[in-house]
């Protein structure tokens, strides 16, 4: 019969069942098993995910150790991200897209949800860190159909004032509809007008376009773009960033979530904590019928969990 | 260096405003008096004069000037009065809203300024016109011009000195491939030209010249000049050798038949408080006459006097 400590230790070191590690539990077991090498030895023999017999010892498995390293360091990682200058943070994430094959959606996220001066600050930070402009690296490293959209989005320095030309917005809603209807699947990105509108117009203007789109054509633009993930994300980031960020968080908690999707959780919580966390909590509850803080408490562990709750503005875990 | 000459000591803004007022009063206008003041004050001084004039006489100086003088002289003074940043924003807007986008103006503004100077122009543009310069360029220009101008205006380029020689060689080859195939509007040409730093771009063009014994601008000279290729060459020259570019523009205006006063005004006004001295010196060696002589030959009246005052007579 496994003891409570053995079960707890197995759970903590399995690397499943949530993100992060229950540090306090581990510390208490370390205390309980002091001067009880048999307990540890029998744990090693029973926990064959981490250990395998090699000669006279139960050796630690490299793969599993790497997995554990990630879980143990989620708190470390999020703390460093939190303490960093927001522009350096965004620049590092952007660089991971251009140089480490991270998903282009991160570029869209940064380019579309940061205000114009912030995005400019990110580009300056990128230059300081990497001695290249972000635009030149995106244009050079990404040469497929996404390139025009991505370069345009990261280059943008949008007008942020209140003035919107309704007639132009109406005609551009029609132009978008036209482009979507006439393009084949996956070809909407090739349409110059689509790219022009999304990469240059002010966000207020774009929101007007989205409104007219629904009025004139009966469907939301998002519905008609459902075949193109990047375009869909772009529109969502402009129209409702809180919904977009809720989706990223939800993706991190899904069954079978990949490493990059899990990283999205830390990225969103740190980058939005001071910006629109209240709106995100509201949107999350509407979309998924659960309180974000409850989901975090259930699906994450230890200091990582506590830091997420703190970033979410939850004072009593 | 600037060719603008300012008297020492310089009169106060109020004195200058009074002189201008006197120049406007009575029948006709005393253009010489206007030129004596306006053509010999820097941007900060001109701004103070505008403020002093409006405070004192309760009317906008620019409006008064527009009603007193006309033609090329008026257009030149109008452009000149603003500070360089606002001036470029205004000129960009005029160029964009033209029936066909006046691409040389946009290319010049996008390519000769440093990244931060261009940013300042874009900021003023937004406050004046309630649109970003990028969005206006993109919605008014079409086809290949849109691609090129948008990329040149929109990129916040790295201004550092580092050069990657391998990359320069690779990109010189990419340029050559596109040029050989006659694909002047290729995305790669536009990408390299609009996103690489000045130092990197220069290195790339040097590699090109080494490899093909021909400068890239010569390689882009086609027998039948097409506007887009002209634009490419202008962008290349503005990004790497702006003094030579503007010298050539002046020489083309002043030594060929016909006359483009708007272009002449633009070059003189935009460079008088910046680097017209170097352009002038180069002009003299190339044209076998001074810039003053060339301008005097082809212009007349108050317009000529104004330009000569800026050139540094």
Automatic annotation (TrEMBL), chain A:
Pfam family, one: Annexin
Gene Ontology CC terms, in alphabetical order: cytoplasm; plasma membrane
GO MF annotation, one: phosphatidylserine binding
Keywords: Annexin, Calcium, Calcium/phospholipid-binding, Metal-binding, Repeat
A single GO BP: response to salt stress
Gene3D superfamilies (UniProt xref): Annexin
PROSITE patterns (alphabetical): ANNEXIN_2
Protein's name in the database: Annexin D4
From TrEMBL, chain B:
InterPro entries noted in UniProt: Annexin, Annexin_repeat, Annexin_sf, AnnexinD_plant
Keyword list, A-Z: Annexin, Calcium, Calcium/phospholipid-binding, Metal-binding, Repeat
GO MF entries: calcium ion binding; calcium-dependent phospholipid binding; phosphatidylserine binding
Record flagged with keyword Acetylation: no
One GO cellular component term noted in the UniProt record for this chain: plasma membrane
Pfam families in UniProt: Annexin (PF00191)
Binding site for Ca(2+): 24, 26, 28, 68, 256, 258, 296, 299, 304
BP terms from Gene Ontology: response to cold; response to heat; response to salt stress; response to water deprivation
Annotated PANTHER family: ANNEXIN, ANNEXIN D8
Protein name, as recorded: Annexin
Organism: Rhynchospora pubera
């Amino acid at each position: 019969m496994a003891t409570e400590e053995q079960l707890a230790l197995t759970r903590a070191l399995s690397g499943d069942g949530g993100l992060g590690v229950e540090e306090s539990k581990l510390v208490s077991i370390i205390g309980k098993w002091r001067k009880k090498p048999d307990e540890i030895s029998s744990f090693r023999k029973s926990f064959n995910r981490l250990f395998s017999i090699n000669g006279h010892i139960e050796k630690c498995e490299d793969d599993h150790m790497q997995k554990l390293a990630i879980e143990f360091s989620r708190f470390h990682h999020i703390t460093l991200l939190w303490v960093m200058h927001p522009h350096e943070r965004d620049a590092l994430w952007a660089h991971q897209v251009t140089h480490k094959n991270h998903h282009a959606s991160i570029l869209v996220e940064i380019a579309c949800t940061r205000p114009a001066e912030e995005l400019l600050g990110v580009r300056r930070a990128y230059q300081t860190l990497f001695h290249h402009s972000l635009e030149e690296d995106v244009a050079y490293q990404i040469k497929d159909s996404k390139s025009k959209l991505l370069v345009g989005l990261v280059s943008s320095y949008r007008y942020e004032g209140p003035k919107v030309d309704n007639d132009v917005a109406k005609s551009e809603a029609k132009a978008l509809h036209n482009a979507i209807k006439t393009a084949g699947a996956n070809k909407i990105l090739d349409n110059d007008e689509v790219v022009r509108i999304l990469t240059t117009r002010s966000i207020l203007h774009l929101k007007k376009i989205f409104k007219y789109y629904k009025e004139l054509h009966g469907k939301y633009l998002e519905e008609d773009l459902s075949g193109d993930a990047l375009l869909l994300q772009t529109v969502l980031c402009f129209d409702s960033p809180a919904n977009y960020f809720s989706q990223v968080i939800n993706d991190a908690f899904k069954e079978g979530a990949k490493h990059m999707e899990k990283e999205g959780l830390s990225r969103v919580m740190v980058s939005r904590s001071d910006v629109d966390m209240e709106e995100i909590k509201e949107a999350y509850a509407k979309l998924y019928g659960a309180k974000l803080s409850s989901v975090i408490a259930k699906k994450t562990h230890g200091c990582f969990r506590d830091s997420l709750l703190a970033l979410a503005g939850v004072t009593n875990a | 260096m600037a060719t603008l000459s300012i008297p020492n000591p310089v009169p106060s803004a109020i004195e200058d405003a009074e002189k201008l007022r006197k120049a406007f009063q009575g029948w006709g206008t005393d253009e010489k008096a206007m030129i004596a003041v306006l053509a010999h004050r820097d941007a900060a001084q001109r701004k103070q004069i505008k403020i002093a004039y409006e405070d004192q006489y309760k009317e906008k100086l620019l409006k008064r000037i527009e009603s007193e003088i006309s033609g090329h002289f008026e257009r030149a003074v109008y452009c000149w009065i603003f500070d360089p940043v606002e001036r470029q924003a205004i000129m960009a807007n005029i160029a964009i809203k033209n029936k066909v986008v006046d691409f040389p103006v946009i290319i010049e503004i996008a390519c000769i300024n440093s990244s931060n100077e261009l940013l300042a122009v874009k900021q003023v543009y937004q406050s004046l016109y309630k649109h970003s310069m990028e969005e206006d360029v993109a919605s008014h220009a079409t086809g290949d011009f849109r691609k090129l101008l948008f990329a040149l205006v929109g990129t916040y380029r790295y201004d550092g000195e580092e050069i990657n020689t391998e990359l320069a060689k690779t990109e010189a080859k990419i340029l050559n491939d596109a040029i050989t195939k006659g694909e002047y509007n290729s995305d790669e040409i536009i990408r390299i030209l609009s996103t690489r730093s000045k130092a990197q771009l220069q290195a790339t063009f040097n590699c090109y010249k080494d490899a093909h014994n021909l400068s890239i601008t010569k390689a882009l000279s086609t027998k039948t000049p097409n506007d887009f290729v002209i634009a490419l060459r202008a962008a290349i020259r503005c990004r790497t050798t702006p003094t030579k570019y503007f010298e050539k523009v002046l020489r083309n205006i002043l030594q060929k038949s016909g006359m483009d006063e708007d272009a002449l005004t633009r070059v003189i006004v935009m460079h008088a408080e910046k680097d017209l001295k170097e352009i002038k010196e180069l002009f003299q060696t190339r044209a076998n006459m001074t810039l003053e002589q060339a301008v005097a030959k082809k212009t007349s009246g108050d317009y000529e006097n104004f330009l000569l005052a800026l050139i540094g007579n």
